[in-house]
Amino acid sequence: SLEGGAILEKNCVYVVELMESLDDLPTTISAFANPKSSTGRLDVFTRLIADRASMFDTVPGGYSGKLYAEISPASFSIKVRKGSRLNQLRFRRRNSGQEEAIGFRVSDKELRDIHRETPLVDGVPVIQNGLQFSIHLAGSHNGETIGYQAQRFTDVIDVDRIAAYSIDDFWTPIPARSARRLILDPHQFY
Predict the structure, then answer these.
(1) Among residues 56, 76, 178, 183, which one has the fewest Cβ atoms lying within 10 Å of its Cβ?
(2) CA 70 to chain centre
(3) In this structure, are residues 59 and 21 in contact, taking their beta carbons and an 8 Å threshold?
(4) For residues 75 and 89, what is the distance between their CA atoms, to the nearest angstrom?
(5) What is the pLDDT of residue 104?
(6) What is the rounded distance in angstroms from the CA atom of residue 9 to the CA atom of residue 153?
(7) DSSP code of 108?
(8) What letters, b where the CB count within 10 A reaches 16 and e where it falls short, cover 33-69?
(9) What pairing do the DSSP bridges indicate for beta strands 6-8 and 78-80?
(10) What DSSP character marks residue 77?
């Protein structure tokens, strides 16, 4: 039971019945789930499970039944309770066999126009099939923090206590180096 809260240990997999369920989802509507951004920032892997669905994170049109989440914390053990929010469900209307995504795509020309009105980035943006981003390893001076690495041994993170923790308790700063390069440990979270 998650009533009083439960600790989900890192490197373990849990399947939890969700409070939400669906009752006669119209056949013209399907749903797709994804982790909330805060879940990803904590390196917690989540997937939605619907009975008789052929894939994770999908709910077919016409579905009625319970929903479950597979939860696997990778870098930090987390505390959750009834009502904690780790995943989100997005509904899509199906039209003549084709899915109509809710949302829109902005063209490169529109992105350039937007940048002229309200700058999207400092300096000149790289716009090619969308706005391109890259990481900055050089820093403006040697020793400047350019990123963070998750600490291997930390206290538990209560996912419902937003902005309640000190960065230094969970993350180790990565300083810029004069060589302007960085070797990452593939078993760590950055």
Answers:
(1) 183
(2) 14
(3) no
(4) 24
(5) 57
(6) 12
(7) H
(8) bebeeebeebbbebbbbbeebeeebebbeebeeebbb
(9) antiparallel
(10) -
User: What does the pLDDT look like over 63-116, one tens digit per residue?
Assistant: 999 999 999 999 999 999 999 999 999 998 876 444 444 445 789 999 999 999
DSSP state of 144: -
At 174, which helix (H) or strand (E)?
strand 171-175
Contacts of 170 (CB under 8 A, 6+ apart): 76, 150, 151, 154, 157
142-178 pLDDT tens trace: 778 989 999 999 999 999 999 999 999 999 999 988 8
d(CA 152, CA 172): 10
Question: What is the rounded CA–CA span in Å between residue 119 and residue 112?
Answer: 9
Coil, helix or strand at residue 167: helix
SS3 state at 117? helix
Mean per-residue pLDDT, 2-14:
95
The SS3 of residue 110 is: helix
